[in-house]
Specification:
alpha+beta, five-stranded antiparallel sheet, four-stranded antiparallel sheet, 9 strands, 13% strand
Length: 282
């Protein structure tokens, strides 16, 4: 063990506790894709839980490469990366954690006055507040504040101090932003009923739920052409349910969440939904 790079020794200790880890190179950045995985050649962006279909033996997929497997961490490809690593990072969401990254003294002061106390770790300019529970990651939820959980990585800066507490609503609510023209949020879909359709036939729970669940599954299981899959799925949902007004905020949000989990941005989701609606003349 003494011959291993110090960063790798730290990573193995963390991995043994169930925290998925990865090395960071100079600039605190992840190692880039290898030639075989560049431009999604290996099968597209991974989802939030695994490295997807890619079987690249290297440290090639940022947060999605994070692992607790000691055999992977000590493999030749990873050892080469650890020798170049400047620090250790981990995937908070996969460990069931959320990191509130406070980037300066003003952000720290705000957190102390606003958020429930939890475990804190000092950083170069501020603090990491670590809560038990995972959520979607968001940058710049307010000045100097980022949220790192699923589909993100955070630097390991030590165990910190204090007792870790459950992820509070106050942190989840930070991710809820006002809609803007550039990045609109999904809204209820109020579309005209079909002529003579009478009562909406899709409000039967089984039919509507099955359709939304199948659409989520289609997006989640996509291994390539994610943009096209999301658009075609939105088109299929709207062609079946778009004219009777049965789709709600909850249904649309489920579809957008499935797409965002595959790496789509909110703007891409909104554009795909709008384009599908336009294609169908809704």
């Amino acid at each position: 063990m003494s011959t291993l790079p110090e960063a790798l020794r730290t990573a193995l200790v963390l991995a043994a506790t169930g925290v998925p880890v990865l090395p960071l190179r100079a600039g605190k950045a992840p190692f880039g894709n290898c030639p075989q995985c560049a431009n999604n050649a290996c099968g597209g962006r991974p989802n939030m839980k695994t490295a997807g279909p890619c079987r690249c033996p290297g440290v090639c997929h940022a947060w999605a490469a994070a692992t607790t497997d000691p055999d992977v961490l000590t493999s030749p490809a990873w050892k080469a990366a650890w020798r170049r690593a400047v620090c250790v990072a981990y995937h908070p969401g996969a460990a069931g954690l959320t990191v509130v990254d406070l980037d300066d003294a003003a952000a720290v002061a705000w957190a102390r006055a606003t958020l429930p106390a939890t475990r804190t770790v000092s950083t170069t300019r501020g603090e990491h507040w670590i809560y038990r529970g995972a959520m979607a990651s968001h940058n710049a939820v307010r000045s100097g504040v980022d949220i790192k959980s699923t589909m993100a990585y955070a630097r390991w800066l030590g165990p910190g101090a204090g007792t870790m507490t459950a992820l509070p609503d106050a942190v989840r609510e930070l991710a809820v932003k006002e809609p803007s023209p550039a990045r609109p949020v999904p809204r209820s879909v109020f579309l005209p009923a079909r002529s003579g359709a009478g009562q909406c036939p899709h409000r039967t729970p089984v039919f509507l739920e099955r359709g939304i669940a199948m659409a989520e599954q289609r997006i989640t299981e996509a291994r390539s052409a994610i943009h096209a899959t999301v658009y075609r799925t939105f088109l299929a949902v709207l062609s079946t349910h778009g004219r009777c007004g049965c789709l709600t905020d909850t249904h649309v949000a489920r579809l957008f969440t499935a797409a965002q989990t595959k790496g789509e941005t909110l703007r891409h989701c909104t554009d795909a939904w709008t384009n599908a609606s336009t294609t169908l003349g809704l």
